[in-house]
Amino acid sequence: MLNTPAVKNELTLTEIEKIAAQMKGLLWLAIGGGEPFLRKELPEICQAFYRLAGVENIGIPTNASLPERIEEYAIQILDTCRTSRFSIGLSLDAVGERHDEMRQLKDAFSNLVKTYHLLRKVRDRYGDRFSLGVHTVVSRDNLNQVAAVADFVNKEFRVD
Fold it and tell me: Which of 1, 52, 57, 82 is close enough to 20 for a disulfide, judged by CB 3.0 to 4.6 Å?
């Protein structure tokens, strides 16, 4: 969660670079979390795998709680990893307040919608090098919301 203390013993950028250097010809890098966009060095981590491993595809899921940072980092990654394809998946559990409740995060749904709109502009700018999607984990907590999520995405979003 966003308000928990920083993770201790996280790999440093230097340690990550050493790992990337051993992975020449990497086809796909999937960066997960917690929330990957909390990591201030996220663009540099992607750049390390691009520069040292030649990664062709980078994928990052996000809870979309940091709209402006996500947009900024997406642009940095696309500008510096020029031949890689980059994708972001917005994690959407339900529509409206129910999404906020499930995420236990105030304004989670409105931030997700804002992030989507910011990233659509990035998608329009970078074309096929950037794809934008929606991820939904179906559980007993949102099973009755799945149809509403699909309807919302189909009506309100243009995703890849």
Answer: 52
